[in-house]
Amino acid sequence: MTPELDEIDLDTVRLGRTGLRTSELQFGTWRFGRVTEAGNVEIDKARAHELLDGYEAAGGRYIDTADVYGGGDCERWIGDWLAERDRERYTIASKVFWQIRDGDPNSRGTNRKNVRHRVDALLDRLDTDYVDVLYIHRWDDETPARELMKTLNGLVESGKVHYLGASTLRPNAWKVARANEIARNEGWEPFKLLQPRYNLVDREVEGDYLEFARQQGLAVSPWSPLGQGFLTGKYDRDEDLPEESKAVESSRFREAYLTPENFDAHDELDAVADEVGATPAQTALAWLSHRDGVTAPIVGARTTDQLAENLAAAEIDLSDEQVGRLTAAKPSPYDGL
C-alpha cells in the first residue's frame, strides 16, 4: 500500500562535489503548462501547486524546471508557489537552450547573448535572485566551449547561479570533460552536475559516461527514470494501448519501448516488485537509486496519487541479488566491451 505524502520522509544526498545536500528524489515539472496534441493543458496552475505541496509534504526540496516548460508558465507557477515560502529551503534548477522566438536565430543555443538574456528572464519568472543549478539543456556546437564556460562563470560570480550542469549529453561526455578542463585551467566554475536519460531499459549512459562522472565526482540525476511510463506497468504486450498514453501519440515511443526485449525486462521487474511488495514503478526507481554513480533520479507525476507512489520508492530496499537480476534483465550495450 502506498503511504500518504505526509507519511513519506525523503532523505537527502550530496550533489557530487558541490557540498550541497538536497532530496534523494528530485521533482521534475516538465508537464506544468504543457499543451498536448489535443490542445489541452496537461497540468494547470492549481494542479501544479497541489503537486508541489505534496512533494513538500514528503520532505522534497529539489525542484527541476526549464525556461521552455509550458512556454514559461512552469517557472511562473513555481515562482508564485515559492513566494509564500522560505526560498532558501529549496533547491531550484532550470535549463536554457531551445529557441524561444521565431525568426531569431540568436534565441537558441548557448551563445553569450542568449544565455545572459535567458537567465535574467527565468529569474524574473521564478521571482528569485538566483537559481541553485543552471543546466545547459543541450550542447551547442556553434558556440565555442571557451565562450560558454566564461559566460557561465560570469553568472556564478554575479551570484545569479550557484552551480552548473549539463543535461542530455549521453554520447558526448568528452565535450563536458573538455569544457571542464578549459574552466579549471582558467580558474572558472566547471560543470558539476549531469542530467542524462537513464532507466532499466535505457542503458546507453553505462560505460564511459557514468565512469567519467564517477571519476570526476559529478552528480548524476537521471530523467525519464520510468521510461516515459513504460516501466509503470501500464502497457501489456498482448493488450491494446491505453487511450491516454504516450504510445497513442508517438510512433517513436512505440518503436523505442514496446519491444519484445523490453517486455522481457518488464517481466523480471514485475517479479521483483511482487517479491518486495511494491509496484513496478517503485521497483524501477529503487533499482535506479541503487545504481553506482546515480545521485538522485528526477520523478514526475500527473496526480498526487502518482507522486506518492513514486516518492515511496525511496523506502524500498532491494537486495544485491534483486538488483543483479534487474540489471541483467536487459543487457547493457557495453556488456562485453
TrEMBL record:
Domain of life: Archaea
Record lineage: Archaea, Methanobacteriati, Methanobacteriota, Stenosarchaea group, Halobacteria
Pfam families listed in its UniProt record: Aldo_ket_red
Record GO terms (molecular function): oxidoreductase activity
GO CC annotation, single: cytosol
Protein name (database record): Aryl-alcohol dehydrogenase
Entry keyword set: Oxidoreductase
Domain NADP-dependent oxidoreductase residue range list: 24-329
